[in-house]
Design goal:
single chain; 406 residues; alpha/beta; Rossmann fold; eight-stranded mixed beta sheet; 14 helices; elongated
Length: 406
């Protein structure tokens, strides 16, 4: 067995859904397939006609897709959690014995990740774990409804306690892995400090052949008669700070800007609220492939007010489409956007002014469009996963033969 090509069993939290984990996981499997790497992907999904476990072996890549059952419940509109998922352990164990992995890689504390971590311990395999979601910040944001019921003097401190306790629980879970991966340097430093494990950067790549400015089907964005399209792509939920879009709309009108509209792609709990407050917005729902690429290219500015994203795939896709991005100074997107070159990094209070200044300066906007595309051309998925495999080498012992069986 060659050390440069370890046999990897990958247990992603999600695969078919619309989120960063699923997006990265699909590209990871594709990378293994085109590189001829031995790779097993064990995932939850309901893509089989029979509703039974589905196993496939295509070249070097094996897949085992396992249905969630009647006890599963929704975490998001398209993401569920199945507390009875461990019922699949026997078939997963059989496939692992056949595949003979050198390590197991999980993406978080989902039911799939918990099973993967347990099986790594059972078979004596080194465990790798990647951090994709700031669960501590998400839970704090999701608790806003409760915090608003408290006196103001207690609200902030209680929110901080929720965030700290969630982070402590997450760190305890991630510390069972021997090596960690995270989308940006700040998170790597946080995880190393809280878990005592080495952490390597695992950013995201972008398909620059799919997402490119030539997909645009509207007039030149800087022409005199062109409406400025402000785009958003992502989950329409409280942790994405999407309510700021309505504030931006009202403030732009107050400044006298009327020649703009929003193009919003995605779904989530805040959609009805946004529809009421953005009467001229286009809500396109969830788009994929060419439809998504054309939508990006038809935007003029990408407005992404999230404070909790660990990376921001959608920001990179916008840049690849030649669309400058306006992002917050928190989370991963600020590592993608070069301030005043490929977009702007601003506080919530300054989003409207940043947008207004670019609407009023077509020449600067055109320069940013070119710079955004140039930056995206440097971000490839292959380089991302090559670095992940380099990280694996730090924990691989001599070839492991599984002695245990189910």
């Amino acid at each position: 067995m060659q050390s440069e090509q370890p046999r990897v069993a990958y247990f992603p939290d999600s695969f078919h859904e619309v989120n960063g984990v699923a997006h990265t996981s699909r590209h990871f499997e594709s990378y293994a397939r085109r590189s001829g790497l031995p790779f097993l992907c064990v995932r939850a999904g309901d893509r089989t006609d029979s509703g039974e476990p589905a196993f496939r072996q295509e070249g070097s890549v094996w897949t085992l897709e396992l249905p969630r059952g009647i006890f599963s419940f929704a975490l998001e509109k398209d993401l569920r959690f199945d507390p009875a998922f461990p019922r699949h352990i026997p078939i997963i164990g059989e496939v692992l014995e056949q595949f003979q992995p050198d390590l197991i890689h999980i993406t978080g504390p989902s039911e799939v990740g918990m099973v993967g971590a347990g099986l790594a311990h059972h078979f004596g395999l080194p465990l790798a774990a990647s951090w994709h979601t700031n669960v501590h910040e998400y839970l704090a944001r999701r608790s806003d409804w409760l915090l608003k019921l408290l006196p103001e003097r207690h609200s902030l401190s209680t929110g901080k306690v929720i965030e700290d306790l969630t982070m402590a629980a997450a760190a305890r879970f991630y510390s069972i892995a021997k090596v960690l991966f995270a989308p940006n340097l700040e998170l790597c430093q946080l995880l190393e400090a809280s878990t005592g494990r080495p952490c390597y950067r695992m950013p995201r790549g972008v398909d620059t052949e799919l997402f490119k400015p030539s997909r645009r089907q509207r007039a030149d964005p800087d022409s005199d008669d062109s409406t400025c399209v402000l785009g958003f792509v992502g989950r329409l939920s409280v942790e994405k700070n999407v309510t700021l879009l309505a504030t931006i709309h009202d403030e732009l009108l107050a400044l006298g800007h009327t020649n703009f509209r929003f193009l919003i792609i995605g779904h989530g709990a805040e959609e009805a609220w946004l529809r009421e407050r953005l009467p001229n917005a286009e809500f396109a729902g969830v788009l994929r492939g060419d439809d998504l690429a054309r939508a990006y290219a038809s935007m003029d500015l990408f407005v992404f007010p999230s404070h909790t994203d660990t990376f921001g795939n959608v920001v990179l896709e916008a840049l690849a489409s030649g669309v400058p991005a306006i992002v917050t100074p928190d989370g991963g997107p600020r590592y993608i956007v070069e301030d005043d070159r490929t977009g702007r990094i601003v506080s919530d209070e300054d989003f409207t002014n940043a947008i207004a200044s670019l609407i009023a300066n077509p020449a600067r906007h055109a320069e940013m469009r070119k710079a955004a595309r140039s930056y995206a051309l440097t971000a490839s998925w292959d380089s991302v996963f090559e670095d992940v495999y380099h990280g694996y080498q730090q924990i691989l012992p001599a070839p492991i033969q599984m002695a245990a069986s189910f």
